[in-house]
Design goal:
heterotrimer; A mainly alpha; B alpha+beta; C alpha/beta; A: 3 helical TM bundles of succinate and fumarate reductases; 5 helices; elongated
């Protein structure tokens, strides 16, 4: 039995909304970065450090990190509940899926913590 | 002579399914795939498939024709034959009962789940409930569904979760009642659709639209349901 | 031995089409344990193919419309052998039945006022034929049958009717009193044979158009109810009356709705002449179906047919404009493009009269109770046995059905049967249980097929049967030809009884079902042939070259075919209107 316990938003609509909003944040961040690199062809470490030490930029990066985490969480949850199901691979599926889901959640959270540490460690 | 390859499986005889090859003389005519099946069944009565109206309105003979789901009775050979070969398999993703006949219980169960009937508990008038032509027009492209299952069995999300994802056909019907000005259970219907599976397993790949023999667009209907869910949540 | 499983219900309905599901709905709403046995999933029943609409005086198109005018049209259309009491009941109750369907959600097309859209159909008039063409056919575009069937299925889901989907009723089980106490049925998926026991058995098994080689009917229209009734020794009525629909697509047989002509389309011959003006100066293309079909055949026989073989005529629609066609007749555009390779927006559709509807069937009263006629000519009710829809002959269609009246017949008499059975169940029905032998008897036909060893294939025999019917019992009939046809059927009988079932497996064995259906096709065909040869007049759809006139003196009556003696009897037409004087037979012109 596939349940929604390990889903992020618990409702289809909120998951769907999170996917859309997080996608916009990631797109905006990507475009900003591409623009920044094009606008600064001779980028130095000092400039890069200065950019990332501003509060606004840190918040932007943090939002993107959280967006990636949420997006991955929901996306991976979808993939796992599509393919690792009792219907497809038998009664062991639930245990295997929960193992992968918990692993996925753990890795995602780890990355988030690590990213925050980097952002505020500059 | 046309080469025809057909998926065969009789649970009482065969350990596993196999493809059987036939040769059919169509006299060069562009007949329908169902005509070929009927011709073969006259020779080999054990060949099993569903059929009824033979004009594309009853939805019995949905099969996978040379890789694409469709109704055998309205698919001409000119659309289905590639390199003088016609390959007919059962609709994918649901259990096979025998040959081209699949067990559609899960498909029907999803249809039943969306409460496919008018809900309006206000006292009925002595005549019909009035509905403007504009309101009625909203049902066009929805009510015509013939429940052939070509769409749902072309949908990977339905293959993976046929017990939880309602599937394009059921969702088209869900929207048919959501869109009906005479139905009053909109909120109740929406509430039942707001889990991560029922509607939201649709990732918009539009296989359903590509195969629908009636030219309907379930993906668009699913989009409308999502919009209604968003509006009702805000 | 009959050691088969028994399932018990208060009411069993055989057939999941329009009338069956309407009857089931009525009973399910009342809380009685009801089951529908249907050989296809209900929405695949042939009602789904009905296109143009359901005729009923709901006074939408014309606020002054009256059900009495509809009654008059129907009686005239029946060529006066429709039972007037039943027609009165149908036309009067109709609006209520239609509004119920609308409340259930049927997506009717609409007028600007928001009411149900009505279109003109053949044989419709105002003021008892004096007020010109009426528009009385309620429509859901050109998919009315589909909309109706799905709505009824949905209503049954809502009321939790038990469906035995993909089950096939084999034969009637009669008890020691000759009352019907259920049927023997096969679960097609598993092959299990079950005795389905019931206090009330309703046959809503539809028509048998597949007795003809060219038909608008679905593959499943094999006269199962008529065949079972005949094998049980019960008579059928007016079975010679077969409607040939004027506009079947040439070559394919697929139906093109009369609504095409209702919306302004017309028929032309090879000279481009609108020939119906000659045959029916007033109603033209909207004359009765029998009249239009015969006119078309005459045009073809007289060398004015279209195409290289001059074997069809054209239905012209292009003058209506693409917008109207898309809005009013979208399904027809689809069918014509697919099956005639003709786009009606720019070119005419090749059409030919094609077998469409069985006016005859199991005789019933307005409550759906099946009847037989005793030696003294009196109606006798068959206990436990009911019929409605095309399988029944309550006789609202008589010798010729008007377009749009079949769907009304389905819902009105499906509903009436349901209501009557509900009442009877409330009062208590006590029928003797069937004995082992009774059940065994109902299984004999199935057993014979299951034990068959060396006969001919069903497909070969079926094709022969259909060709005989097509050649000898078509639009125009002649005594000597029909006698020849009857002889050919006689020769075919033992071969069909000896049909071989090579594949005896159980799982979804459609070959077994087809062998059983063949028996029903033959029974219906034989009854048709004998009744057609016996009715020595021309009336409605029954047109004889050797008896070209209507003979009210001898044949203003129903024919009754008795299966045991294979003879034809007569039964009086009901002229008892409750609300006014009966309509006396007049010469029928359009």
């Amino acid at each position: 039995m596939v349940t929604t316990v390990t889903s992020l938003g618990r409702s289809g609509l909120s998951d769907w909304m999170i996917q859309r909003i997080s996608a916009w944040i990631m797109t905006a961040y990507l475009m900003f970065m591409v623009g920044y690199f094009i606008g600064n062809p001779d980028l130095t470490y000092a400039q890069w450090a200065e950019l990332n030490s501003g509060l606004a930029m840190r918040m932007f990066s943090l939002a993107t990190i959280l967006a990636i985490a949420a997006h991955a969480w929901i996306g991976m949850w979808c993939v796992l509940t599509d393919y690792i199901t009792v219907r497809l691979i038998g009664p062991k599926a639930t245990a295997i899926r929960i193992f992968f889901q918990l692993g996925m959640i753990a890795i995602t959270l780890l990355y988030v913590v690590w990213a925050i540490d980097i952002l505020w460690g500059i | 002579m046309l080469n025809v390859s057909i998926y065969r499986y009789n649970p009482e005889v065969d350990d596993e399914p196999y493809m059987q090859d036939y040769q059919v003389d169509t006299q060069g005519k562009d007949v329908m795939v169902l005509d070929v099946l009927e011709k073969l069944k006259a020779e080999d009565p054990s060949l099993t498939f569903r059929r009824s109206c033979r004009e594309g309105v009853c939805g019995s003979d949905g099969v996978n024709i040379s890789g694409k789901n469709g109704l055998a009775c309205i698919t001409p050979l000119s659309e289905a034959v590639k390199g003088n070969k016609l390959v007919i398999r059962p609709l994918p993703g649901l259990p096979v009962i025998r040959d081209l006949v699949i067990d559609m219980s899960q498909f029907y169960a999803q249809y039943e789940k969306i409460q496919p009937y008018m809900i309006n508990n206000s006292p009925a008038p002595a005549i019909e409930r009035l509905q403007s032509p504009e309101e009625r027009a909203k049902l066009d492209g929805l009510y015509e569904c013939i429940l052939c299952a070509c769409c749902s069995t072309a949908c990977p999300s339905f293959w993976w979760n046929p017990d939880k994802f309602i599937g394009p056909s059921g969702l088209l019907q869900a929207y048919r009642f959501l869109a009906d000005s005479r139905d009053t259970a909109t909120e109740e219907r929406l509430a039942k659709l707001d889990d991560p599976f029922s509607v939201f397993r649709c990732h918009g790949i539009m296989n359903c639209v590509q195969v629908c023999p009636k030219g309907l667009n379930p993906t668009k209907a699913i989009g409308h349901i999502r919009s209604m869910l968003i509006r009702s949540a805000t | 031995m009959a050691n088969i499983r028994t399932m018990s219900f208060d009411a069993v309905i055989v057939g999941g089409g329009g009338s069956g599901m309407r009857a089931a709905l009525q009973l399910a709403q009342s809380g009685y344990k009801t089951a529908v046995i249907t050989k296809v999933f209900p929405t695949r029943s042939h009602t789904v193919s009905a296109q143009g609409g359901i005729t009923c005086a709901i006074a939408s198109d014309d606020p002054n419309d009256q059900w009495q005018w509809h009654m008059y049209d129907t009686i005239k259309g029946s060529d006066y052998i429709g039972d007037q009491e039943a027609i009165e009941y149908m036309c009067q109750t109709g609006p209520e039945a239609i509004f119920e369907l609308e409340h259930m959600g049927l997506p009717f097309s609409r007028t600007e006022e928001g009411r149900i859209y009505q279109r003109p159909f053949g044989g419709q008039s105002k003021e008892f034929g004096e007020g010109g063409q009426a528009a009385r056919t309620c429509a859901a575009a050109d998919r009315t049958g589909h909309a109706l069937l799905h709505t009824l299925y949905q209503g049954n889901l809502k009321n939790q009717t038990t469906f035995l989907n993909e089950w096939y009723a084999v034969d009637i089980v009669k008890n020691a009193d000759n009352a019907v106490v259920g049927v023997v049925a096969i679960d097609i998926e598993t092959g299990e044979t079950v005795y389905v026991k019931s206090k009330a058995t309703v046959f809503a098994t539809g028509g048998a158009g597949r007795i003809y080689a060219s038909t608008t009917n679905a593959h499943i229209c094999t006269g199962d109810g008529v065949g079972m009734a005949l094998r049980a020794g019960f008579p059928v009525q007016d079975i010679e009356m077969w409607q040939f629909h004027p506009t079947g697509i040439h070559g394919a047989g697929t139906l093109v709705t009369e609504g095409c002509r209702g919306e302004g389309g017309y028929l032309v011959n090879k000279d481009g002449e609108r020939f119906m003006e000659r045959y029916a100066p007033n109603a033209k293309d909207l004359a009765g179906r029998d009249v239009v079909a015969r006119s078309m055949v005459l045009e073809i026989l007289e060398g004015r047919g279209c195409g290289p073989d001059g074997d069809h005529v054209y239905l012209k629609l292009d003058h209506l404009g693409e917008e109207t066609l898309n809005a009013k007749l979208p399904g027809i555009l689809e069918l014509s493009r697919t099956f005639a390779h003709a786009d009606p927006v720019v070119e005419p559709i090749p059409v030919v009269p094609t077998c469409h509807y069985m006016m005859g069937g199991i005789p019933t009263n307005v409550d759906g109770q099946a009847l037989t006629v005793d030696k003294d000519g009196n109606d006798q009710i068959i206990e436990g046995f009911y019929a409605c829809g095309e399988a029944a002959c309550v006789s609202v269609h008589g010798a010729n059905r008007l377009g749009g009246n079949s769907l009304l017949d389905l819902v009105v008499f499906g509903r009436a049967s349901g209501m009557f059975i509900e009442k009877q169940l409330r009062e208590g029905i006590n029928l003797k249980d069937a004995s082992e032998e009774d059940i065994e008897r109902a299984m004999s036909g199935l057993n014979r097929i299951n034990n068959s060893e060396n006969g001919e294939k069903a497909s070969v025999l079926r094709a022969e049967l259909q060709t005989i019917m097509q050649n000898y019992f078509g639009v125009f009939r002649r005594g000597d030809f029909m006698k020849e046809g009857i002889e050919k059927l006689k020769a075919l009988r033992p071969r069909i009884e000896n049909v071989v079932l090579e594949d005896k497996s159980n799982a979804f064995n459609t070959a077994r079902i087809e062998a059983l259906e063949l028996q029903n096709l033959f029974a219906t065909a034989e009854a048709t042939a004998i009744a057609a040869e016996g009715r020595t007049e021309s009336r409605g759809a029954h047109a004889r070259e050797d008896f070209q006139d209507r003979d009210d003196e001898n044949w203003l009556c129903h024919s009754i075919f008795y299966p045991e003696s294979k003879t034809l009897g007569k039964r009086g037409v009901n002229f008892n209107l409750k609300t006014r004087e009966a309509f006396a037979p007049k010469v029928r012109t359009y």
